Target: FadR family transcriptional regulator
Amino acid sequence: MLMNSVTVDTDDVVSKLRSYIAEGGYKPGDRLESERDLIVRLDVTRARLRKALDTLEHEGAIWRHVGKGTFIASPNVTSGPSNLKLLSQQVTPVQLMRARLSLEPAIARETALHASEEAVRHLKHSRDLATEAPNWDEYEAQDDNFHRVLAEATDNVLLLSLFDHLNAVRRAVAWNMVVRSSDRPSRTHSSFAEHDAIVAAIEARDPKAAQDAMRAHLGSVSARLFGEV
Model:
């Protein structure tokens, strides 16, 4: 009887956790809150939360990286050679940037060709949120959002899925800590003008300019982090 009770309690926590993730607007590659925060939000014990996390990890809904956190998995990418946890341990930041340079300019090109007017408006809004971010953490979150909104605007579920897979690995790859000299990006931060150029090319329906602008943007980011890749 006691074992049945424990099983029921664990199932309840799994259900709570599933609902929390579903209602939280999480995307593949997003990191869940810490165990401490989830314990408070879900009003559960640490032991039962960990059992629920184990269940969702076994199902492939989440994956965990020691020292990095718990991440939302992309559909159908949690087994075999596409296992994100293994990839994140095998890919270097430079290799990751090369992959971005291969994929994201093509995504920008497709967005210029196929984005709806509503999608372009959404993209401009996401750009503005990044520009207006009050601190570096918020900027990085809004910058991530800008790139995903751009991928969504291709109106191509396969390209969006490829982007999500790449982005999920990007978030888990071990990056060296970047030292910031200010609390927020300066108004002259180079990414702002680069985002503007990407959006302008997409709004003008110029696929080559959009592709070139994205390549220039990622090249600029890469140069700041690594030099040439």
